[in-house]
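Sample intake sheet
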Amino acid sequence: SLTDSPVILKILQNWVPRVSHYFDKEHYTYVGHQIVIQESIEHFGAVVWPGALALSQYLESNQEQFNLKDKKVLEIGAGTGLVSIVACILGAYVTATDLPEVLENLSYNISRNTQNMNMHKPEVRKLVWGEGLNEDFPVSTYHYDFILATDVVYHHTALDSLLATMAYFCKPGTVLLWANKFRFSTDYEFLEKLCNMFNVTVLAEFPESNVKLLKATVREN
C-alpha cells in the first residue's frame, strides 16, 4: 500500500547549532523537553542524521496514532540516542541498541537526558545486526510493540543482516517505524526487499531532506 499518499512534512529547525571541532553538543527541543546530544565525528553512529530528526518530530506530533506510553520500544542503530530519548519522554520502556564502539556515547546521552525525569529508565545494549539475536534477545522473553530505526540504510555491507534483524524482532502486533534519507539505488533496493517481507506504508515524506518515514508490519497469514 505504498500508493496511499504520505504526509509531506518539513524537518523543523528546532535546535541551536554549536560549533566545536571534535565533540559537538546539539540542543533540541521535543515534547517540551530540551535534549542535549553529544556527537562525535569519529563514528557514523555518533552523529545525528536527518532520519532521527524526522522520526522524533513525527512521534511528537502523532501521539494519538502512535501512543508509546508504557509500550516496549526497541531502537536498532540508536546512534546518539535522540530517538530513544524522545520515545522515553513519551513514556515508553526503551531499549536502545547499537555497536559496541557507539555504546559509551549513546549511554552518556541517554542517561544525561533522562536521569531526572519521572519515566521508565531506558536500557542501553549491544546489538550487532544478525548476530547472537537468539542468545541476547530470546523470543520467549523479548517482545516489542515498536521497533524504531533511523538512517540505518546507507553504503554498508550489513544490509542483509539488518533486514534479518528487522524480521527477527517484528512479530505479529509489532510496528516497525523506519525513517531514512534516500540517496542511493541500494536504499531503494532495501525498501523493495522490505516490501516483499512486510506490509509497508509511507507515513510521511520530508522532500527537502530526501527523508521517507515508513511503517512496516508483519503479514498475517
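Comment: The radius of gyration is 16 Å. The chain has one domain: 7-218.
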